[in-house]
C-alpha cells in the first residue's frame, strides 16, 4: 500500500509535464522576427520554421516586427505568456551588441528562455582593391605608415560591423577614423567609391563585391575558414588569437517556459538543422547551421554580452550619452 502511494505521488509529479509535452503544440506557433521582411534574417526564419513546423505538426506564423534595432520585437516576446506559443529569432544585435552599447528596456538574459542556436555567418575584413595591401599583415603595416589617412565604414554606431573593427583596432593598436552609415548598403557605396578604405561586413553582403574584384578579402572571423572563401585565412590564423565576431541567429522565448516544451522545441530544431537540404538553403546567406542545447545557447549569449560590453567600455562606445 505504501509503495503504491509513492508511485501515485511520483506519477502526479511527472505526468502533467509528459502530457503537456505530448500535447504541445496544439495550435500554430507565433515566431517574431525583429527585422523587416525581405532581408537575410527574414529568409533564415522562414526557411527554418517551415521545416520546424512540419516536424512539430503545427505551422509557425512568422511575424516581422522591425524598428528600434530589435527593441520592439524583444519587448513583445519578453511580455508574452511563457507557454511556447510565442518565440523570437534573437540575433547578435538583440542579444549581444545592443545590450552592450545602449540601455535597452529588456534584460537579454533574464527576460528570455534560450531554445537553441540556428546558425552563424562570419564577418570579413574587406579593403578597397586599389590599396596595395594583399595580406592582413600588409594592411596593418599600411595603416601604421599612413596615420589618419585610412577611414572605415560601418552599418551604424554600435553595429557588429562597427564593434568588430574596433576590436581589430584594439588588438592591432591601429588608428582608423570611423564613418558610420545608416545601413550596410550606403556603407558599401562609399567604400566602392573610395571615400572609405576598409570595413568588416557580414560575408553574405560582401560576397558580390569580393567576387567582382572591387573589394579584397584579407581575413574572416570565426574558428575556421569559410566554405565560401577557402583561400582567405581566419583572423586567428593571421595572428589574432581568440578574435571572434559572428553574425548569429537563434531562437528564444519568454522567461519561465516549461522545461519539457523547451526540450521538444530544441530537439526538433536540431533535427531540422542537421538536414543537408537546410544547410544548402542557408548557404545563400553564407550561414552555417550551428545546433546547440538550450544551456549551451544561453551560455553563448552571456559570453557575447560580456565580450561586447568589455569592448564598448574600453573603446568608450556608449550610445545613450
CATH superfamily annotation of the largest domain:
Bordetella uptake gene, domain 1
What percent of residues are in strands?
Answer: 15-25%
Q: What's the total count of β strands?
A: 11
The CATH topology name of the largest domain reads: D-Maltodextrin-Binding Protein, domain 2
Number of domains: 2
Number of helices: 11
- On the 0 to 100 scale, the average pLDDT is 93
- Please give the CATH class of the largest domain: Alpha Beta
Percent range for helical residues? 40-55%
Order of the strands making up the biggest sheet = 2-1-3-10-4-11
Major beta sheet summary: 6 strands, mixed
**What structural category characterises the helix and strand content?**
alpha/beta
First-last Cα distance? 69 Å
Unreliable stretches: none
H and E order: HEHEHEHEEHEHEHEHEEHHEH
Overall outline: globular
The gyration radius over C-alpha positions equals 22 Å
CATH architectural name of the largest domain: 3-Layer(aba) Sandwich
Describe, in plain words, how this protein is organized in 3D.
This protein has two domains: 19-121 and 246-314, Bordetella uptake gene, domain 1 (D-Maltodextrin-Binding Protein, domain 2); 124-220, Periplasmic binding protein-like II (D-Maltodextrin-Binding Protein, domain 2, 3-Layer(aba) Sandwich), CATH 3.40.190.10. 43% of the residues are buried. 44% of the residues lie in helices and 18% in strands. The protein has helices at residues 2-23, 40-56, 71-78, 93-101, 136-145, 160-172, 184-193, 203-212, 259-273, 276-282, 294-314, and strands at 29-33, 60-64, 86-91, 112-122, 124-128, 151-154, 177-180, 198-199, 215-220, 246-254, 288-289. The mean pLDDT is 93. The longest helix is centred in the N-terminal third of the chain and has 22 residues, at 2-23. It is globular, with a radius of gyration of 22 Å. The protein is α/β, with parallel strands linked by helices and 321 residues long. A six-stranded mixed beta sheet has the order 2-1-3-10-4-11, sandwiched between helices. Helix 2 crosses helix 9 (259-273) and helix 4 (93-101) packs parallel to helix 11 (294-314).
Amino acid at each position: 500500500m505504501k509503495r503504491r502511494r509513492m508511485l501515485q505521488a511520483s506519477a502526479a509529479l511527472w505526468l502533467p509535464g509528459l502530457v503537456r509535452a505530448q500535447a504541445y503544440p496544439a495550435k500554430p506557433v507565433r515566431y517574431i522576427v525583429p527585422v523587416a521582411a525581405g532581408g537575410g534574417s527574414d529568409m533564415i526564419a522562414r526557411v527554418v520554421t517551415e521545416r520546424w513546423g512540419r516536424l512539430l505538426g503545427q505551422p509557425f506564423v512568422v511575424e516581422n516586427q522591425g524598428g528600434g534595432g530589435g527593441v520592439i520585437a524583444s519587448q513583445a516576446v519578453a511580455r508574452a505568456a511563457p507557454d511556447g506559443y510565442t518565440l523570437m529569432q534573437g540575433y547578435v544585435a538583440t542579444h549581444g551588441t545592443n545590450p552592450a552599447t545602449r540601455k535597452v528596456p529588456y534584460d537579454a538574459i533574464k527576460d528570455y528562455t534560450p531554445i537553441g542556436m540556428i546558425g552563424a555567418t562570419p564577418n570579413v575584413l574587406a579593403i578597397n582593391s586599389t590599396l596595395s595591401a594583399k595580406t592582413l599583415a600588409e594592411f596593418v603595416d599600411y595603416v601604421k605608415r599612413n596615420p589618419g589617412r585610412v577611414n572605415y565604414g560601418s552599418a551604424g554606431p554600435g553595429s557588429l560591423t562597427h564593434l568588430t573593427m574596433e576590436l581589430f583596432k584594439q588588438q592591432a593598436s591601429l588608428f582608423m577614423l570611423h564613418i558610420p552609415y545608416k545601413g550596410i548598403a550606403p556603407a558599401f557605396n562609399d567604400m566602392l567609391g573610395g571615400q572609405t578604405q576598409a570595413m568588416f561586413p557580414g560575408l553574405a553582403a560582401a560576397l558580390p563585391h569580393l567576387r567582382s574584384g572591387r573589394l579584397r578579402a584579407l581575413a574572416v572571423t570565426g574558428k575556421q575558414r569559410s566554405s565560401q572563401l577557402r583561400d582567405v585565412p581566419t583572423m586567428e590564423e593571421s595572428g589574432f588569437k581568440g578574435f571572434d565576431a559572428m553574425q548569429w541567429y537563434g531562437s528564444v522565448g519568454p522567461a519561465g517556459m516549461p522545461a519539457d516544451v523547451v526540450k521538444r522545441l530544441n530537439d526538433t530544431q536540431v533535427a531540422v538543422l542537421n538536414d543537408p537540404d537546410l544547410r544548402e538553403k542557408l548557404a545563400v546567406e553564407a550561414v552555417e547551421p550551428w545546433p546547440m542545447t538550450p544551456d549551451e545557447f544561453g551560455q553563448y549569449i552571456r559570453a557575447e554580452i560580456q565580450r561586447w560590453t568589455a569592448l564598448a567600455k574600453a573603446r568608450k562606445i556608449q550610445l545613450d550619452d
